[in-house]
Design a protein that fits this description.
The chain is an all-beta fold. It has 2 domains: 83 residues, Lipocalin (Beta Barrel); 97 residues. Helices cover 0% and strands 46% of the residues. It is built from no helices and 15 strands. Strand 1 and strand 2 form a beta hairpin. The N and C termini lie far apart (40 Å). 40% of the residues are buried.
């Protein structure tokens, strides 16, 4: 999104606040993110992100939102009250491109990155590494990596019987959907997240 006369920003995967008052967009062409206020019908902020921001996710209380930066494999964290960037999460961790070794969770070319409805976790689909990264939103720290399928792309949450939420993950080059339980024992700690199952998407 941009004011009249500005260069096209090519907004991609926007996110609406739960109260319907605010929309945020990642602007792929201009490497920034726009916050739009519907009450005043104006752009309330426009902040720089990483390279090729492509998707967003927001806390349920609209306190902050996340922007997935596709080309530099990072997440920009934006405080919606102060309208400022508070952190950049490096999804490559300590990955060594020469040896291929890493001791931390690793994700490259992130796409969808929604926050769970209870605001505790963010799950990021990384298409190059076919991995899912789970971030603790209290600290904005990646706490778990799970294997995904080729072309890992889409993530949506759904309620889990007994409490908590499942995340349903689609991949562009696999005819199945992964079901992730980010908090199996519902203790608020995602370090024990698991793949709970898979759903075939073929007849």
């Amino acid at each position: 999104m941009q004011p009249p006369g500005s260069l096209p920003t090519h907004p991609h995967a926007h996110w609406m606040s739960a109260d319907g008052k605010t929309m945020v967009t990642p602007n792929a062409f201009t490497a920034d993110s726009t916050m739009y206020d519907f009450a005043s019908n104006t752009i309330s902020s426009k902040l720089g992100t990483g390279a090729l921001p492509i998707a967003t996710g927001m806390m349920p209380d609209s306190s902050k939102y996340y922007v997935a930066n596709f080309l530099d494999s990072s997440i920009t964290v934006i405080d919606m009250n102060t309208k400022s960037v508070t952190k950049t999460i490096n999804l490559l961790g300590d990955y060594d491109p020469i040896s291929g070794n890493a001791t931390t969770p690793v994700g490259a070319l992130p796409i969808q990155t929604p926050v769970s409805p209870n605001g505790k976790f963010m799950i990021t689909a990384n298409t190059l590494t076919a991995s899912l990264l789970i971030t603790d939103t209290a600290t904005d720290t990646v706490v778990k990596q799970l294997k995904c399928d080729a072309g890992c792309h889409g993530v949506q949450f759904g309620a889990k019987s007994g409490g908590g939420y499942y995340a349903y993950v689609s991949s562009k080059f696999a005819n199945k959907m992964i079901v992730v339980d980010p908090d199996p024992d519902i203790d608020g700690n995602a370090s024990d997240a698991i793949i709970a199952g898979r759903i075939a998407l073929t007849a």
